[in-house]
Amino acid sequence: MTSPHFGTFFLPGPTEVRPEILAAMQRPMISHRSAEFETLYAHCDDGLRRLFRTSRPVFISSSSATGLMEAAIRNAPAGPILSLVNGAFSARFAEIARACGRTVEALEVAYGEVVPLERVEQALRDRRFAAVTAAHSETSTGAAQDVQAIAELAHAHGAFSLIDSVSGMGGMPVETDAWGLDFILTGSQKALALPPGLAFCCVSDRYLAQAKDAPARGRYFDIVEFAQYAAKRQTPNTPAVSLMYALEAQMAAIGPTGIECRWARHAAMTSVTHAWVEHQRPSGRIEGILAPAGSRSATVTVVKTGAGIDARALLVEVERRGYVMGPGYGKLAATTFRVGHMGDHTVETVTRVLDVVGEALAQR
Ligand SMILES: *Cc1c(COP(=O)(O)O)cnc(C)c1O
Question: Which residue of 5, 61, 164, 300 shows the fewest CB atoms closer than 10 Å?
Fold first, then answer.
């Protein structure tokens, strides 16, 4: 499936894009109010519904994923927001809610951890919230949260579940309908292995029904308008048509039955990465994995380097060998690096880059 030169770029977003997908973007412009566009839209929507595991429309936004995080908040009912914060991106969700004028209660845990469900339940008991925000796969730490359980708790206490699966969707199981997710969003440039610039979301009927009364939902991220246009297989404004060509090609490549294979491939890439860490540990050059066992993302692993090994210098060595790995996020930059084993990478490409990291480590 991949071309010979693929397999050197392992950032946890943007991820490496196959040449075939890049080539799909080189098609002429079309009117976004034409029958031709509606066909393109329909192909994208069909694929996205299979990806999201939903029978409802998936909205296509020409923005980065942060735009749809803002949409999730803006279109939510009035009232305070409960934000589960366990890393940089889940913290961003809380910041966006504050920036939109919401009262936010943040349930914070140390980077790498996940928020215990008991704490979520207690907070929901103590106070009535309009919605709960959470990151499925916290890309800054490699921790994965049980968003199904979080959504159930939110519902049991009359709150909507607003879920960021930007680095989860396409690489880890997400069951939009079965889990009753009210607002689930992702971006094009992570596990979907598309260029950056598109974001996708799906909302529950209940969420959509109340959105028309949301007082400050603004214009660009008005979910009611997205729904109206989606019914016509269009977008409210001029979409990034070229990126939709890429999306159409990727959805066709995944095919009608490919999503479970995609999850299995990501699980296999994760196993290879975890095994490599275990293999390196006795040397002392690698300390271990930041996220606790049982709560690890299937798309990104944050690896802690051993005492005296500066992760930033290590990545420079890796880059000299022709490979790009993700730096540790923010305050974790000196002591961790991130392996983006996601998108269209394979066990082979991940094994190869880990060998390269191992060589660089052995020379230190
Ligand atoms: C990358 C990422 C985002 C932000 O996405 P943008 O497309 O850069 O706006 C948000 N949440 C998570 C978990 C991410 O990995």
Answer: 5
Domain residue ranges of the chain, discontinuous segments joined by +: 9-14+258-362, 19-254
Homologous superfamily of domain range 9-14+258-362? Aspartate Aminotransferase, domain 1 (3.90.1150.10)
Indicate the top mutation candidate among 61, 93, 166, 189 to test ligand 1's pocket, ranked by most ligand atoms within 8 A of CB.
166
Atom of ligand 1 at shortest distance to CA of 139? 15
169 - beta bridge partners?
172
Let me know: does 49 contact 56? Beta carbons within 8 Å: yes
| pTM for this model (two decimals) | 0.97
Instruction: List, for residues 99-134, the tens digit of each pLDDT value.
Output: 999 999 999 999 999 999 999 999 999 999 999 999
Question: What is the average pLDDT score of the chain?
Answer: 97
Q: Decide: 259 and 47 in contact? Cβ < 8 Å.
A: no
Q: 19-254 — its CATH code?
A: 3.40.640.10
Please choose from 190, 198, 243, 300 the residue to mutate so as to test ligand 1's pocket, defined by most ligand atoms within 8 A of CB: 190
